[in-house]
Amino acid sequence: MASSRSTIIFVATFFVLATSISATEYIVGDASGWSLDFDYQTWAKDKVFLVGDSLVFNYASGAHNVAKVNGTGFQQCSTSFSNGILTSGQDVVPLLTPGRKWYICGVGKHCELRNMKLVITVLPQTMAPAPSPVTTSASSNMAVPTIHGFVVTIAGGLLSLLV
């Protein structure tokens, strides 16, 4: 009984640690950061965002901000629909739930005229697609790779020990 309980505690601890290890931190805009006249939709197009990942918005504090908005706020470039405005210049936004996420800069006309807006779709961990081939582009080093497949394999092996 004691060894079975120890195994269950070990497996539970492993899952908690594995989830945090498998998360990817995306630097929005890569080396350009959160800045004017950058094509954020193209930047996001080939990325797979999963629950547990996070976005990092780097910008000069005071020059820009990050407003988490809904679809209407995104279309209208309006912070009236904001769920909070971030201003630190190094804002980390954890992706905690699946679904569409919208972000805009609420300073001046940065969203309307200078393209400072980003929309992404966050997938649940269980819906993660097969990994893409590794690229060698300069931007590929801007995200910490996930080890989701490895974690699932190890977890499956540990669970088979319990059966």
TrEMBL record:
Q: Which domain of life is it from?
A: Eukaryota
User: Which cellular component appears as one GO term in the record?
Assistant: plasma membrane
Leader sequence residues: 1-23
Q: Where, per UniProt, does this protein localize?
A: Membrane
Name the coiled-coil region(s).
none
Any one GO MF term held by the record is:
electron transfer activity
Q: Write out the entry's keywords from A to Z.
A: Copper, Disulfide bond, Electron transport, Glycoprotein, Membrane, Metal-binding, Signal, Transmembrane, Transmembrane helix, Transport
Primary site of residence: membrane
Answer whether the UniProt record assigns the keyword tRNA processing to this protein: no
Q: How does it sit in the membrane?
A: Single-pass type I membrane protein
The reply to whether Repressor figures as a keyword in the UniProt entry is no
* All residue ranges annotated as the Phytocyanin domain in the record: 24-124
Task: Kindly give the SUPFAM superfamilies that the UniProt entry links to this protein.
Answer: Cupredoxins
User: GO biological process: any one?
Assistant: response to symbiotic fungus
Which named protein is this? Answer: Cupredoxin
Please tell me the species this chain comes from.
Artemisia annua (Sweet wormwood)
